[in-house]
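Cross-check.
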Amino acid sequence: MATTAVPTSAPTRPAAGLGWVSLLVLLAGTFVTTLDFFIVNVAIPSLSEDLAAGPTAIQFTVAGYGLALAAGLITGGRLGDLYGRRRLLMVGLAAFTAASLVCGLAPSVGVLIAARVAQGVAAALLMPQVLAILNAEFTGVRRSRAFGAYGLAIGLGAVFGQLIGGVLIHLDLAGAGWRSIFLINVPVGLAAVLLAPRLLRESRSPVAARPDLVGTALVTVGLVAVVLPLVEGRSLGWPSWLFGCLAAAVPLLVGFVGHQRRRAAGGRAPLVTPSLFAARSYSVGVALAFVFQLTMASFFLVLALYLQEGRGLGALGAGLIFVPLGLGYFVATMLSGRVAARLGRYTITLGASVVAVGYGMLAETATGWSHAGVAALVPALVVAGAGMGFAIPPLPAIALSTVARADVAAGSGVLTAAQQAGGAVGVALVGVVFYRILGAQPTADSFPPAFAIALTLLAVVDVVVALGTLLLPRRS
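Predicted model, tokenized:
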């Protein structure tokens, strides 16, 4: 069906762009969806005991959210382009809030798993809209600062997720225990849903088209076939059916690419416009986002394991060790907008290089100072956090800088999906290395070398990211 032009929605605010109060409302969704990816890990012991959940059920409680999120991001982005980015943001926020309430009240582990999957689907609807609205509403230095605030929201959710979860469970507010980590989303989500129509303006693609149902099915099943084995492989012992999933993903995703090209050639709107990848800033930016997130997700995994199993810290104690990392991240993020305005693509080069240095310092501390207190880790954590704060905010801004307004939410969906897939790949690959070195019967002495080797591997990958930024256009 040929596409026809339609007018975009009338703006509800002046053309000068969104204000900073509006930005806070917009980023509330980014914060809670990122937080829920990490916060659940600290609740596993109490959750397992309260709901009598076995290892498999716990795995799907954790992985169900990430699977649904990764599989739905590309579709969620295109739906925003077609039906309105503010509308999809509000639908996603409302659904995420409702699913969080169900998680917090879940009477059984089956209900909890279903609600976690619903959370992931809702997050997939709202996350691409945040980047799309930021990209459309902010320009110049304000754009750099807005993406810096976006990076800060992600960092606060990711870096402080374990600390926030540990504090909530320790406080045991109203006797809620582990349920408070989900119930805390409800007031935040309700406030954002109520304020969004007042403070955000609607935008959509100027081209109306029917949704690409075949493309949606191909990419959703294909991404699940990739991410599911990577997330569940190690814990399930890599059964043969997981390798069958990975093998099936190849024809599914190849078929998806071919289908998108045929739709574009026939004048019908594809789920992902192939011409997006013709721009070097976008194609290289997506690749760098994938590889950098590979190091981030796996770093949080091995750090948490080292602190809790290698150093014997509880959830709250381990969460407090994340504070120096978060402080370094916070300071660098506050500076990243101004630095990016001066350095452009080299801000990512700087950030990835500093992260590599921080990981190297951590590896040396873990092995050379293995009998020192955990306070010895603080300088390296500050350095690593600062590198993350410089690298994360400019990446989406540069990647989306050349994306047409008609495709900005779809482009955001692809970018975010690449980050989620990178996280799954990183956890799978680095997890294999870490546990292989750890051995079948790990002791406290076996954790430092496993941690150090994993960090060395991640540092090398971050050096590759730093060098890869040189492939970006100079004027990104």
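The chain has a mean pLDDT of 84. The chain is about 75% helix and 0% strand. Passed to J.P. for a second look.
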